[in-house]
Amino acid sequence: ISTHGLAWFPQYVNEQGIKEIKEVWQAEVVRLAMYTAEYGGYCTGGDKDALKKLVKEGVEYAIKYDLYVIIDWHILSDNNPNTYKEEAKAFFDEMSEAYKDYPNVIYEICNEPNGGTSWKDVKSYAEEVIAVIRENDEDNIIIVGTPNWCQYVDQAAADPITSYDNIMYALHYYAATHKDDLRKKMVNAINAGLPIFVSEYGTCDASGNGAIDEKQANAWVEEMDRYGVSYVAWNLSNKNETSALINSGCNKVSGFSWDDLSASGKWLF
Fold first, then answer.
1. Which of 49, 178, 217, 242 has the lowest tally of Cβ within 10 angstroms?
2. 241: closest CA among 183, 178, 174, 170?
3. Dihedral pair phi/psi, residue 232, rounded to 5°
């Protein structure tokens, strides 16, 4: 399960809520989504210290309750990860120094490259950031985003990062928008040897809204299970949108009942 933007929905990073993700939802991974360039973003006037503190709290709860945890450098409107590359290197230097001894910590270094950003751009950025992480942490998993909002995994498969080990590549989908073609692209990349991690998905359309497509959502799960692909649902919040797992009228941050869940939440549960 992925949080929404930590600057907007910080309340969902709480000990009881993380415990519930593990024990009630029976999830194995929680993703901490820290936007870089939106309102309150880490690189655009957000409170860096407060955001780092929130990430670290989330990681500590995940360590306590034996969950994998993804530290997500959530680029979106900044399009190209190179825009704030130096900030990313400093951030991941700090995080990898802090958590190098915890094998359940995963670093996702660029959420969704988009806006015409090429795989060449992403790869050069990734090689610099990975070098910083590997100075501290020799082998924890690092997830690298792929172009076009993490859909062009074929480009990464054709030219993967070879200078470092334990690297995976992100594919993102929204079931009502992305169907057979993207599933085929995923399978072809896996068959070409690319390790894929679906670090974000939704059951609705790519805007985060619209109707749930249960048929396509279930087809994705079947295919990911067939190939042993991990997948993380977007998002743990009560935002008034289809992809939010909690009803917009529910202000709880843990102890959710069935009636507190949105249609997306009920499907996921």
1. 49
2. 174
3. -125, 125
Block means of pLDDT (10 residues each) for the chain, length 269 residues? 98 98 98 97 98 98 98 98 98 98 98 98 98 98 98 98 97 95 98 98 95 97 98 98 97 98 97
- Confirm if 143 and 103 have CB atoms less than 8 A apart: no
Instruction: Retrieve residue 69's tokens.
Output: 């945890």
Instruction: Report the distance separating Cα 171 and Cα 182, nearest Å.
Output: 9
d(CA 14, CA 126): 31
Distance CA(240)–CA(237), nearest Å, equals: 9
Q: Give the residue among 105, 107, 169, 101 at the shortest CA–CA distance from 133.
A: 107
The pair phi, psi for residue 50, each rounded to 5°, is -65, -40
Residues 6+ positions from 154 with CB-CB distance below 8 Å: 185, 188, 189
Q: How many residues belong to the chain?
A: 269
Tokens read off for 81? 């990860």
Q: Are 147 and 108 in contact (CB under 8 A)?
A: no
